[in-house]
């Protein structure tokens, strides 16, 4: 009977849920837009605060503040995690939602305001049928996931000891898969320093930071062949003043990923060794880690949790499969610590971080019912 009540609630509130997600997406919450992200937090908390007696705010100056909601005072808890920031700056062309058929396009629809909508309405449905209070629940809403969770990482690490399990609502896989494992990742920066000179003052050899960086980029990309299932990508590069100036400084942003956590020190050692070999006399290179998430391997506890979720899905007429995802999320912190962790409870979505980011509207009800029923099953485990 409770399952039917949950489904009835999600069906009857589907239009309201979509409107909520549209409102979230139409409010810009670029990671560096603190005011906008705090507005998004207020919109979410308007729905969730009545269900949670305890609300801790972790104030931030440069990004939106982080929020921890609890319906209990102590003991281990089920954690639900979602981030409120997006990658779209206030001057980006992609600022508002549009519907086309069964698709909702909008900034953050897939990553991950659609998932926030799933969390909010799953909790609403459990409150509606009177079982939310049975579960020791902690909800974390952070504001810098797209920056690597630099300021929220300490918060997650403090909370790990209290986590019985963790469910995250990043977007589902294309066929509704949930995520049971993820790559580890480092976001880093390379700075090459040379000597600023006008080209007319140099007769032969020059200490060009741009040329040095070019050699380092090639060397780093070649490391990809040495580490199976790992990847190094040099993204944005910058440097120099103009064509007639020898660059005294050049920089690059680097993305480093791996599946096996044992690769992390080996990758870093290889990168440091590569950067220590200077190609241009008078040039030096420096490697700086900006953010880092450990790899999230699947473990026995996560496998058991996934099987329970599959069983719950079958009871709803849903086929739930699993996938490994090369991207990272805040689920990594929990999964890497050995806590049973499942990600991907959000709606089916695609093209995140682009102006074509979208979700399948029909999948919202399915994912909300799935998450709510998984939590309901947890509430019944001791009965």
Write the layout of secondary structure elements.
Elements: H1 2-12, H2 14-26, H3 34-48, E1 54-58, E2 66-70, E3 77-83, E4 98-100, E5 103-105, H4 109-128, E6 137-142, H5 153-159, E7 163-168, E8 178-182, E9 184-193, E10 197-198, H6 209-222, E11 231-239, E12 245-246, E13 249-258, H7 263-276, E14 284-293, H8 300-315, E15 322-325, H9 331-336, E16 341-342, E17 349-350, E18 358-360, H10 362-379
Parallel strand pairs: 3-6, 3-7, 7-16, 8-15
Antiparallel strand pairs: 1-2, 2-6, 4-5, 5-18, 9-13, 9-14, 10-12, 11-13, 17-18
What string gives the helices and strands in order? HHHEEEEEHEHEEEEHEEEHEHEHEEEH
| The CATH C-level class name of the largest domain | Alpha Beta
- What is the CATH third-level topology name of the largest domain? Aminopeptidase
CATH homologous superfamily title of the largest domain: Zn peptidases
Strand content bin:
15-25%
Give me the CATH architecture of the largest domain, please. Answer: 3-Layer(aba) Sandwich
- Rg (C-alpha, Å): 23 Å
């Amino acid at each position: 009977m409770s399952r039917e009540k949950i489904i009835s609630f999600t069906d009857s509130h589907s239009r309201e849920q979509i409107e909520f997600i549209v409102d979230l997406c139409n409010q810009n919450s670029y990671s560096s837009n603190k005011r906008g992200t705090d507005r998004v937090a207020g919109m979410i908390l308007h729905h969730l605060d009545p269900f949670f007696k305890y609300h801790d705010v972790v104030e931030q100056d440069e990004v939106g503040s982080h929020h921890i909601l609890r319906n209990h005072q102590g003991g281990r808890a089920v954690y639900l995690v979602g981030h409120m920031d997006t990658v779209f700056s206030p001057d980006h062309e992609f600022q508002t939602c549009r519907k086309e058929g069964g698709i909702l396009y909008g900034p953050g629809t897939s990553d991950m305001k659609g998932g926030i909508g799933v969390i909010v309405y799953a909790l609403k449905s459990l409150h509606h049928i009177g079982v939310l209070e049975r579960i020791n629940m902690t909800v974390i809403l952070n504001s810098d996931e797209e920056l690597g969770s630099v300021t929220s990482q300490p918060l997650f690490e403090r909370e790990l000891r209290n986590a019985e399990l963790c469910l995250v609502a990043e977007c589902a896989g294309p066929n509704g898969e949930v995520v049971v494992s993820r790559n580890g990742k480092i976001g880093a920066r390379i700075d090459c320093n040379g000597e600023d000179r006008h080209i007319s003052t140099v007769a032969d050899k020059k200490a060009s930071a741009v040329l040095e960086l070019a050699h380092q980029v090639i060397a780093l990309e070649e490391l990809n062949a040495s580490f199976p299932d790992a990847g190094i990508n040099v993204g944005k590069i910058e440097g120099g003043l103009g064509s007639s100036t020898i660059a005294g400084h050049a920089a690059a942003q680097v993305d480093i990923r791996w599946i096996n956590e044992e690769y992390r020190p080996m990758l870093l050692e290889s990168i440091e060794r590569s950067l220590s070999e200077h190609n241009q006399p008078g040039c030096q290179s420096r490697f700086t880690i900006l953010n880092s998430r450990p790899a999230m391997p699947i473990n026995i506890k996560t496998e058991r949790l996934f099987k329970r979720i599959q069983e719950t899905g079958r009871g709803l007429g849903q086929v739930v499969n699993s996938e490994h995802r090369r991207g990272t999320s805040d689920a990594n912190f929990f999964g890497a610590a050995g806590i049973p962790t499942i990600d991907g409870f959000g709606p089916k979505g695609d093209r995140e971080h682009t102006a074509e980011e979208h979700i399948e509207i029909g999948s919202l009800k399915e994912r909300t019912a799935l998450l709510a029923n998984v939590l309901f099953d947890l509430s019944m485990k001791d009965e």
